[in-house]
Amino acid sequence: MPILAQVFAALAAVLHVAIFVMESVVWTRPTVWKRFGVASQADADTVRPMAFNQGFYNLFLALGIVGGLIVGGSAGHAVVIFACLSIVGAAVVLATGGRTYFRAAVTQGVTPLVALVIAALF
């Protein structure tokens, strides 16, 4: 896997660790749940278990990328590719949720997509 693809995959991992922190660690802060389009404290409390769970999905995908980069070789790179494909797939699903989610989908999906394209081309 080309180094540039590895860099973009690592950037995707960093972003997804940050998302994990927001969704699973500091969700109770109004500045955080408002960032996710949640309108009120009551709504934030209602979706907190879902956000907590979703945050861990993001963490596990990030750990897949990091682990794959550390292991290296064909097995490690296969894990990186799988994690990047999963993130891009999740971004596509998010984008289907409507216009309000498009920016978040692009933010989430662009770095792993670039990693995948570079890995495929080189």
From TrEMBL:
Any one Pfam family match given in the protein's UniProt record, by short name: DUF1304
Keyword Transmembrane helix: yes
Keyword vocabulary terms for this entry: Membrane, Transmembrane, Transmembrane helix
Membrane-spanning parts: 52-71, 78-95
InterPro entries found in the cross-reference section: DUF1304 (IPR009732)
Protein name (database record): Epimerase
